Amino acid sequence: MSTPDSEPDSATSRGNGDSDDLDERDANIQPLAGRVIPHSAAEDVLGVLTGTFMAALGLYLLEQSQAVSGGTAGLALLLTFGTPLGLACLFFLVNVPFFALALWRKGWRFTLRTALSVGVVSAFAAVCEMYLPVPDINPVFGVFAGNTLLGVALLIVFRHGSSLGGFNILAIIAQEQFNLRGGYVQMGLDITVILLAFTVLAPENVLLSTAGAVVMNVILAFNHRPGRYRA
Question: Where does the record place Polar residues bias (predicted)?
Answer without folding.
Answer: 1-16
